[in-house]
Amino acid sequence: MKNFSILFFISALIISACGTTESVTEADPDRPIFDIDEEIAEEYIAEQMDEFDRLLFENRSRLSDRFASIEHDVPEIFLREVVREESEAERYAGYRVQIISTRNVAEADSLQDDFRAWANERFEDFEPQVYILFRQPYYRVRTGDFRERSQAIEFSRLVKNRYPEAWVVHDRIEPENLPQRNADIRLR
């Protein structure tokens, strides 16, 4: 027991001797590890550079100040043009019903003719336009010009009776071909 007390006393003495009296704080990430004068640091960096880099380094603040004060004036006519283009883009935004997408141009042409004949028999007072669009490698046959998605969906339900693969797509439309209202799309 005496040996155990001595061993306990010595271990307690060693543990207390290893402790520190200074409080531990987190390092400030903005504070440099070593305090070095900025002029000395710049001189050291300048010594390590070649002539071109040194010239850029010496003139960097003057160059940035010179170009920071330049004002970029945009004439009003260009600003008005942008607004006009946005309203024009909205005028042509709409929906169509895509009937098929194929790599075969002959199939697209024959489907276009078939749809025109079917639509003339099927619809009263409404003649939907049929468009063939090419975006490599596919020919897409689309029909109708609708501003509202709900109108395009309603029209696609009628088209799906004959062409079950048809679906509504967002597309650039021709505003002069818009149906006046849903009542214009009547079946015969």
As a whole number of angstroms, the C-alpha radius of gyration is 39 Å
- CATH class placement of the domain at 94-181: Alpha Beta
- Say how many strands there are: 6
What is the terminal separation in angstroms? 112 Å
The total count of helices amounts to: 6
What class would the helix/strand composition place it in? alpha+beta
How are helices and strands ordered from N to C?
A: HHHHEHEEEHEE
Can you offer a commentary on this structure?
- With 188 residues, the chain is an alpha+beta fold.
- It has a domain at 94-181: Sporulation related repeat (Alpha-Beta Plaits).
- It has six helices and six strands, in the order H-H-H-H-E-H-E-E-E-H-E-E.
- The chain has helices at 2-18, 38-48, 51-68, 76-91, 105-122, 149-159, and strands spanning 93-102, 123-124, 130-135, 138-146, 167-172, 186-187.
- The chain has a four-stranded antiparallel beta sheet with strand order 3-4-1-5.
- Strand 3 and strand 4 form a beta hairpin.
- The radius of gyration is 39 Å and the shape is elongated.
- The mean pLDDT is 80.
Brief overview:
The protein has 188 residues and is α+β, with helices and mostly antiparallel strands. The chain is built from 6 helices and 6 strands; from the N terminus they run H-H-H-H-E-H-E-E-E-H-E-E.
Task: Draw up the topology in text.
Blueprint: H1 2-18, H2 38-48, H3 51-68, H4 76-91, E1 93-102, H5 105-122, E2 123-124, E3 130-135, E4 138-146, H6 149-159, E5 167-172, E6 186-187
Antiparallel strand pairs: 1-4, 1-5, 2-6, 3-4
